[in-house]
Amino acid sequence: MEATTGNRILVTGALGQIGTELVEALRARFGIDAVVASDVRDMPDHPVVIGGHYRHLSVIDADAFDAVIVEEGIGLVYHLAALLSVSAEKFPELAERVNVGGLITVLEAARKHSLRVYTPSSIAVFGPDSPNHAPQVTPLNPTTVYGRTKVTGERLARNYWNQYGIDVRGIRYPGLISYKAPAGGGTTDYAVDIFHEALANGHYDCFVRADTRLPMMYMDDAIRATISLMDAPAESLGESRVGYNIAGISFTAAELADAVAARVPDFTCDFKPDVRQEYADSWPDSIDDELARQDWGWRAEYDLDALCDAMIAGLQLSSI
Ligand SMILES: NC(=O)c1ccc[n+]([C@@H]2O[C@H](COP(=O)([O-])OP(=O)(O)OC[C@H]3O[C@@H](n4cnc5c(N)ncnc54)[C@H](O)[C@@H]3O)[C@@H](O)[C@H]2O)c1
User: Fold this and answer.
1) Is 302 a known active-site residue?
2) DSSP-derived secondary structure letter, 217
3) pLDDT tens figures, 216-226
4) Is residue 58 in contact with ligand 1, taking CB distance under 6 Å?
5) Angle of helix 145-164 versus helix 102-113 axis, rounded to 10
6) Entry pTM
7) CA dist., res. 179 & res. 313, Å (int)
8) Is the distance from the beta carbon of residue 188 to the nearest atom of ligand 1 less than 6 Å?
9) Is the CB–ligand 1 distance for residue 170 below 6 Å?
10) Given a cut of 60, is residue 1 above it in pLDDT?
């Protein structure tokens, strides 16, 4: 299929937790001019905006999206714009419009302009009936609004691949832990917030129970996974191309608090579960990523100790 526009890369939702680091990685690899960052927010001081080309763009405005694709000569879209789990539960209609409607905008533009597309899924596609060690292929019956939009997203992406031959790829990210941008309203945000609070106040009130175990990953691993999935030869990818399971580290909230306490003297943590406990309880403890390993050579590098060291060093450095 011939590309009808160009070879530049568009990142949607670029001012978010993942976009902040993905844009930096893409600019470093392909050159500043090759990457167009976009988001619905206006944040003139954001490093992504300062560091290169930026367009204000809502993914639910299909005409504006189409115009940007043509004007900027885009050939590949990393589509990160979405509402995460906590925001989606609060604003379910908006979540449908952004997470499902926005993806349709991107996929339709891909059909028209022969774009390649990366669109992330999430461990939130799994529901309470999934095995605790979640397999790649299993019935997907999420109980959250967010999870349902992600299941629909995988189905849409697969349809555009099967029916129109659009090269769409995606990963079911675990909870992502990073220090360069704030976490964006997800259930796994406690695993980010705990580091900020430990260093700022020496204490954290954690919003899930101590024994809550969830699949997590350090952001560097997630960015590496994202770029290597897009680098993989199309013929190496199977039916799971729109939502590969990838595993990083699984730990309980108590294990995380202990690891932080081992690095931050006098740190204390209380566990005060709120409504987010329900979302966490509906998700698996860990992820089977055998297929991603086989198909495109995926392997995580960060364990809990390496993650904690990197988070604390990163936060301390950025506060200087
Ligand atoms: N961060 C995680 O732990 C995690 C885990 C699993 C999956 N994901 C998925 O990865 C993707 C990116 O997540 P993130 O953590 O960077 O989220 P985030 O909330 O930090 O960022 C999302 C960005 O999308 C933007 N946005 C919202 N509505 C928009 C619209 N209509 N048009 C354009 N932009 C819009 C927001 O302004 C925000 O900057 C999402 O699809 C999310 O579901 C993230």
Assistant:
1) no
2) E
3) 999 999 999 99
4) yes
5) 10
6) 0.96
7) 10
8) yes
9) no
10) no
Give the pLDDT confidence of 22-35 residue by residue, as tens digits.
999 999 999 999 99
Q: β-pairing, 213-218 with 249-252?
A: antiparallel
Cα distance between residue 90 and residue 87, in whole Å: 5
Mean pLDDT, range 86-104, rounded to an integer: 97
Give every CB contact of residue 85 below 8 A, 6+ residues apart in sequence: 124, 144, 146, 147, 185, 186, 187, 276, 279
Domains of the chain: 8-174+218-245 (3.40.50.720), 175-217+249-285+302-318 (3.90.25)
Question: Which residue owns the Cα nearest ligand 1 atom 36?
Answer: 13
Phi/psi of residue 174, each to 5°?
-75, -175
| Closest C-alpha residue for ligand 1 atom 39 | 16
- CB 173 less than 6 A from any atom of ligand 1: yes
Please give the distance, rounded to the nearest whole angstrom, from the Cα atom of residue 84 to the centre of ligand 1: 6
pLDDT digits (tens, 9 = 90+) for 121-169: 999 999 999 999 999 999 999 999 999 999 999 999 999 999 999 999 9
Question: Is the Cα dihedral 219, 221, 224, 229 positive or negative?
Answer: negative
Cα 262 from Cα 125, distance rounded (Å): 34
The number of the ligand 1 atom at minimal distance from the alpha carbon of 181 is 20
- Residue 103 Cα to ligand 1 midpoint, Å, equals 12
Cα separation, 16 vs 192, whole angstroms: 14
E strands, 43-107, in order: 53-56, 74-79
Q: How far is the CA of 266 from the centre of ligand 1 (A)?
A: 34
If you count DSSP H runs as helices and E runs as strands, how many of each does the chain have, helices first? 13, 16
Q: Are 221 and 292 in contact (CB under 8 A)?
A: no
94 lines ligand 1 (CB under 6 A): no
Residue 249 bridge partners (DSSP): 216
